[in-house]
Amino acid sequence: MAGQALAPVTVTAASDAPDAAAVLLAGLAPCDPALILLFGSPREALGPLARDLHAALPQARIAGCSSAGEIGDCGYQRGTVLAIGFPRAAFRATAIALRDQRDIPVSAWLSALRSLRADFAPDPNRAQFGILLADGVSRNEDVLVAALDAALPGLPVVGGSAGDGLEFQETCQILDGRPVPGAAVFVLVETALTVAEVSFAHFSPTAQRAVVTAADPATRTILELNAEPAAQEYARMAGLDPAALQPVDFASHPLLLRTGRRHHVRAISETTAGGGLRLMSAIDIGTVLTLGRAEDVTGGFAAALDALPRPPLMVLGFDCILRRLAVERAGMTGIMADLFARYNVAGFNTYGEQHSGMHVNQTFVGLALMPPAGTRTDAA
Q1: Which of 12, 87, 208, 318 is most buried, most CB within 10 Å of its CB?
Q2: Coil, helix or strand at residue 69
Q3: d(CA 355, CA 165)
């Protein structure tokens, strides 16, 4: 079978268009999807569209979430709904809602995940991977990812935290024809294609470090850095005005946490009324953070994808909203759109990314889907 016949199909519609469901169905139905991923904004649009798609394609599993922006045919998008259909000829999928993310019922999650995999009866000749769509405002993604890693060791899992534009108020997760509020959606996929994880971040550490001397871990808020009000000390370190901090400043001057030999971003979502810094990842008192420096937001992206063994049929991508803001501020949206088109990237902008058993920020993570070695990629 030709490689292109196995490729996922991507369809985009304006979320407020009266014929949005019809547009999505017209593009998806011919591929006979085993799985449909649905990403979009605003969040209110997703529930009705998921219901219509589920009614028309009842044999397909449907999983999705609201976003801080979409990645589709035109690069970065807003106010659209993106549907990705994974053809039954090359994919098989099952899915589950991991409920009550805010309350972290880890034992229940572990049991449900192990049962899910046991019932899936994998084909040893095919690759498996997982997709995690977490609730970006319920927090606790760090624990959620650790639970997945414990329940499904060795399974590549990528994903993103659902967004709400830049509001950080409420998100929407979808499983089949209905919303599942407060839950993370996990999808287990088997495919005849070759898969490879992709990760790219555009920052480097500076010499400036700070200790978290007061924090509220439950809300992921730093109250003090170096025994000073957190926002004030952060602004001093970064050379910014503490009274005028904005998301684009956080994108250009990330806080980094060193783990082993690597630095991972602990992204700032907003300042609080009391002068704290609210993060998109877990934080605790005593943590040592390094001020980061943003570099070329596009330069290494192509290199990361060019390193793949074969050109991808599609890259399922999860790109932090702060990376998108950095791209926009640098005037590089056109360059990024060209790169997304070259490598067939589709996905959404997130409040955090899941990759290699970790919850990270300000990073592009993805899963490249490539034809098996020796497969022709023409449509013949």
Answers
A1: 318
A2: coil
A3: 22
Tracing tokens 């139905």 back to the chain, one arrives at 29
The closest alpha carbon to 291, from 244, 236, 246, 241, belongs to 236
Contacts of 147 by beta carbon, 8 Å cutoff, 6+ apart? 106, 109, 110, 113
Helices of type H across the chain: 20-28, 46-56, 106-120, 141-151, 230-238, 247-252, 299-306, 321-329, 333-342
Q: Give me the amino acid identity at 339.
A: L
Give the Cα separation of 70 and 342 in Å (integer): 17
List pLDDT tens digits, range 216-254: 999 999 999 999 999 999 999 999 999 999 988 998 899
pLDDT at 303: 87
- Beta carbons of 189 and 347 less than 8 angstroms apart: no
Q: pLDDT digits over 59-68, tens only? A: 999 999 999 9
Q: Are 177 and 61 in contact (CB under 8 A)?
A: no
How is residue 209 annotated by DSSP?
E
Residue 378 and residue 380: Cα distance in Å, rounded?
6
Amino acid at 96: I
Helix axes 106-120, 141-151, angle to 10 degrees: 40
- Of 247, 242, 207, 246, the closest CA to residue 228 belongs to 242
320 touches 349 (CB < 8 A): yes
- Which runs of E-coded beta strand occur in 217-357? 221-225, 228-229, 255-259, 262-265, 268-271, 277-279, 288-294, 314-320, 345-350, 353-355
Q: Is the N-terminal amide bond of 309 cis, ω within 30° of 0?
A: no
Omega of the bond prior to 205 within 30 degrees of 0, cis? no
**Which parts of the chain have pLDDT scores under 50?**
1, 378-380
pLDDT at 376: 60
CA–CA distance, 160 with 131 (Å, rounded to integer): 8
